[in-house]
Amino acid sequence: MNELKLLREWDADAPPLTDTARARGRFRLYQAMRAPTAPTAVRRRPLLRIAVATVTAAAVTTTVVVAENTGASPRTQTVSAVTVLRGAAAEERRLEKPIAPRDDQFIYTKEIIKETPVGGGGRSKTYVDESWSSVDGSKKSYVSELGHTQWVPPDQPGQRSWPPRRWSQLKQLPTDPGKLPIALRDIGRTPDYERPMKADEWPMVQHFLSALLRTPVLPKGLRPATFEALATVPGVKVLPGRTDADGRAGIGIQYVGKPATPWADGGPVLVFDAKTYQYLGMRDQRNAGAKTYEQWSYVAADAVVDRVMQRP
User: d(Cα 291, Cα 270) in Å, to the nearest integer?
Assistant: First the structure.
């Protein structure tokens, strides 16, 4: 079975694109990724993010020396992005609890976002955002973003989004970390797994992988595959001595590849536990007019429920 049958389903209600139109659309998408105004246009919620999410990723080259306290004399070990991300994938496989939602159900998520003005000039705030997303997209979803709530209408014929909103579409994405980047590179057509990835194709693939990682709930095996796929993306640095939103010690992974990100510090940072490599959350920035806010975010709870406003 074609692993990207879902992409044909997206086109079911619209005439197929010509090669010229497809190339033009990809170019516009790539240009949008590079636009300096991209951060202000990005929505945090998968239900509201269309086509692309904020940049996060990893790669294979950069290493960092981390002090390890063994109880005797401290020693050092070299930690690479590959080690961290593969460790995160292994930890995710160990901890993940597979779910099998029905089409008529909703996916409940509870996300904690801590926000502090950069440079002072205001108080820190903590938001508890609870959302209920329709499993098959046929019902209204209820989402919260930085405390602002709204109803999101059902999917319309021919409507497309990335990441996919429907659970059935997510389930058809490859969980083979070697195939996933190629499938995303060739999105909209049959993947050519025999053709190697070109250097200028990695930035777009990185954006798509990053969006998957920011989706709170994924089918079994897809998040570990995304971590491992990100480990193959060129352009990363490792940031030692980071902490998550609750003060836990961690290691940061930050994408610094081309195209250059519009953030002065290189872009969002994924934070992983320094010992187990479990994914802890993300540091990001938000621009609101003349103000910039530092953000920490993580998913505190998720579940499958039967109706909006029902909690596990």
Answer: 23
Cα 94 from Cα 193, distance rounded (Å) = 28
Q: Please tell me the total number of residues recorded for the chain in this structure.
A: 312
Would you state the structure tokens that stand for residue 312, as one six-digit string? 């596990």
Q: Quick one: tokens of 20?
A: 């010229």
**Average pLDDT value for residue range 237-254:** 86
Express each pLDDT in 105-151 by its tens digit.
999 999 999 999 988 777 889 999 999 999 999 999 999 999 999 99
Query: 145 with 174: CB under 8 angstroms?
Result: no
DSSP helix/strand/coil, 80: strand
Q: Crossing angle for the helix pair 222-230 and 202-214, nearest 10 degrees?
A: 140
Give the CB-side neighbour count of residue 87, counting CA atoms within 13 A.
18
CA–CA dist 156, 137 (Å, integer): 9
Cβ–Cβ under 8 Å, residues 239 and 64: yes
Query: What H or E segment, with its residue span, contains residue 169?
Result: helix 167-171
Q: Tokens 């955002």 — which residue?
A: 129
| pLDDT tens digits for range 18-28 | 433 444 444 44
C-alpha 143: how far from chain center = 17
Indicate the DSSP class of residue 74. -
- Strands (DSSP E) contained in the chain are 63-68, 75-80, 106-117, 125-134, 141-145, 148-152, 236-243, 249-255, 269-273, 279-288, 291-305
Contact predicate 271/244, CB 8 Å: yes
Helix (H) or strand (E) holding 10: helix 5-10
- Dmax (CA) for the chain in angstroms is 68
- In sequence order, what are the residues at sequence separation of 6 or more whose Cβ sits closer than 8 angstroms to the Cβ of residue 113? 44, 126, 127, 129, 146, 295, 296, 297
The radius of gyration of the chain from alpha carbons, rounded to an integer in Å, stands at 19
pTM of the model: 0.74
